[in-house]
Amino acid sequence: MNTTQIEALIKQMTRMEKIGQMTQITTSFFNVDGAKATGTASRMKDVEQHKWIVGSVLGKLDAKSMLRIQRDYLQHNRLGIPLLFMTDVVHGYKTIFPVPLALSCSWNPDVLRRTARVSAVEAAAAGFQVTFSPMVDLVRDPRWGRVMESFGEDRLLLGQFGAAMVEGYQTDDLQQSDTLAACVKHFAGYGAAEGGKDYNTVDLSPLSLYNDYLPPYQQALQAGARLMMAAFNTLNGVPATANTWLLQHILREQWGFDGTLISDWGAVKELIPHGVAASSADAARLSLQAGIEIEMMTTAYIEALPELCEQHPELEQKLDEAVKHILQLKQELGLFDDPYRGVSEAREQEMILHPNHRHAAREAAVQSMVLLKNQQVLPLNSTQKLALIGPYADNRHLLGPWSVDGDPQHAVTVLEGLQQQGMQVQSLSTDDSHIEEEVLHQAIELIQQSDVILLALGEREEWSGEAGSRAHIGLPHDQLKLLRIAAAAGKPIVVVLFAGRPIELEEVARYADAILLAWFPGTEGGHAVADIVTGRCNPSGRLTMSFPYHSGQIPVHYNHLNTGRPAHLLTQEKRYKTQYLDVPNEALYPFGYGLGYSEFGYGNIDAGTGELSANCPLHVSISVTNHGPYAGCETVQVYIHDRVAEIARPVRELIAYEQIQLNPGETAQVDYTISADMLGYYHTDLQYRADPGEFELIIGPDSRHGSSVTIRLLSNET
Ligand code: GLC
Hints:
30% of the residues lie in helices and 18% in strands. Strand 23 (681-682) and strand 24 (688-689) form a beta hairpin. The longest helix is centred in the middle third of the chain and has 18 residues, at 315-332. Alpha-D-glucopyranose is lined by residues 58, 88, 132, 185, 264-265, 466. It holds the Pfam family Fn3-like. It catalyses: Hydrolysis of terminal, non-reducing beta-D-glucosyl residues with release of beta-D-glucose.
C-alpha cells in the first residue's frame, strides 16, 4: 500500500474510526490469559464497543493469542485495517539480557545491537511488532529508579547506544518478520526529574537541553526509529504530552521526524492533575494540538474528539495527519500484506530462549560487569574453599526491572554458575533486608571453614525501575552488618553487587578486597559472574554513571562545569571553594572507571602540530601496552576541555573511545582523528559550532586519569 492508497483509505474512514486508530488499549480487552484490565485500564470508558476500531494494543501476548486476536479483529474491522501489537521489550523478551545501564558499561555498540536483535527475533516470534525501546534519557541522579533503563550520564554514549539498539530492532528492512519498530523514549528530559522522584518536575535551560539532553533522542531517530514516546514530566512548566514547542518545533520542524508520536501510559488524562487541563476534553485538545497521535491507555480521544472536531473543524486535519503516520507504520511493517507477519507457534517455540540467544546474553553480561576493586584476590581457583553468602547467593531474581516477559526460573544463579565451573563452594542464602542472628551465626561457621568469602549482596529488583525512586541508595543495614562480620574473620572478601543503580559503596570498599558490580545481569547472570571470578573471562566493563560517596552529593557526574572556585585548583584555600565540608567532592568511582586482571600502560600522546581547523582535522595517537598477566580489553577514552568558550564548558567531555584487545606484553598504537565538529557545542544563539582556541585533550582509562596535551583550533570557517 503506497501513500496514495493510504490517503484513499483515510478518506473512507469515519471520524470515529480515525479516533479509534489513535487509541491504544491492553491485550486484556481481548482476553489474553494473564492480562487483566487493572488501574487505568479498568477506568477506560466505552472500550468494549470500540475495541474493533482501536489501532493498537500493548501488553501480554503469545503467538497463539496474537493470531486469534488479529483474526477476530479483521473480521470486525470494517475496512480491514490490521491491529498493531506493541510491548516493552527493553533488555530482552524471554532471554533477558543485563539491564540497559549494565549493557552500556560494555562500551560496545555491538553488544547493544545484538541485544536488540535477539530481543526482536524472540518478541516478533510471539507476535509483537513494536517495542518501547531504546530509552535514551540522560541521567545524573541515581535516586531515580529508571537509571537502570538508561545508558548513563554521557550524551555521546547515550546517542550511540540508542542508535545501535534501533538498528538491532529494525535492521534495514522493517518488512522482515523478525524485526520490531523501535520507539525512542521518553521525550524529553525525563531523567532530570527533580529529586530523583519519578514523574516529577523537570526544569532545564535551553543550553542544557540542546547540549546534553536532546542529542541522544535525535541520534536514535537518525538511526531510523519509527516512533517517539512523549514523557510524563513537565518540561519548563509544560507537560511534554502537551508541549507544542517540544513535539512540533523541535521534533517535527527542526528534526523532521516523520514517524508516529505516542503518549506514555495514561499521560493524556494526566494533564488534568498536572493542572493544565480542566477536563478530558481539554486534555484531548491540548494533546492533539501538540501532536500526540496515539493515546496510550486512556480514552480522552474517544470521549471528547468527536465533539471537539464538530466545534473545531481544523482539528480534523490533525486526525488525518496522525492516522496517516499510524497507517504508514503498519505499511512499513508489512501488515497490510500479511497482518500475521508469519507468526506461528512453531517459530515461537524455536526462537524463545534459543541456545544462541542464551550465549549472547552470557557474553553481554560478562562485558557489562565492572570490577571496581581487586587487591590480588581475583581470579579465584578451584583449590580454594569458597563461602558464598547473601541474598544473591542462590537467587534467580537476576533479571532486573523491565523484564516483564522474562521468567526467573530460566535464570542461572551464582551458586549454579560456580558449581558448573568446578569451584568448591558452600552457600548460605539470606534475606536482603533482615538477617536473623541465627543466620549470622551460620555465616560465621561457614566462613571459618572457607578460604575466601564471596558476599552476593544488593538491591531487590523492585527497588529500581519505574516508580523505584530511593532517597537512601546504600545497601540495607543487615547486609552491611554481614559484611562487617565477614571482615572480622580476616579472610579475603569478594563482594558481588546486584543493583539497578549506583549504590553508596564507601563502607563496602573499606572492608572488601574485591568488588564486582554485576548490576542485574539477566538470565545468564550466574554463568557470567562465575566466568569472571574464576578468570575464565577478564572483566572489561567501564562505568557509564558515577558512583557517589553519598547521596548528598547528587547530582554528581563527570562532565560538570569548573565554577569560579574549583576545589581542585584552589588546593591552598581551605573553605571558600566549591566543595562539601563533610564528603569528598568527586565520585567514589568515576565515569569511565573499571578494572581488569591486567595492567594497561599508556604512552605519551602524539598530537603532531597540535593544530586543526574546520577543513583540516588533527590526527593524534597514543600507545597502549598490556603489562599482563592476562589477555584483555582496554577502553581507551578521549576527553576534551574547552578552556575558553562563549559559555562555561565541562571540565571533561567524552569525544571518542576505542576498545582494544591486547595479549600480555603486547603494545598497540591507537589513532584518533579529531575534527572541529567534535569540539563544538550549542552557543547562546542555539547554533552548534566550535570556538577557535585552545583545548585540553586527555586520553586515558577513565574520566579521572590520563595524559593530556594542548591542541588549538585555528578556525571554524569551512
Ligand atoms: C510506562 C513507562 C513507559 C512504558 C509504558 C508502557 O509507564 O513510562 O516507559 O513503555 O508505560 O508500558
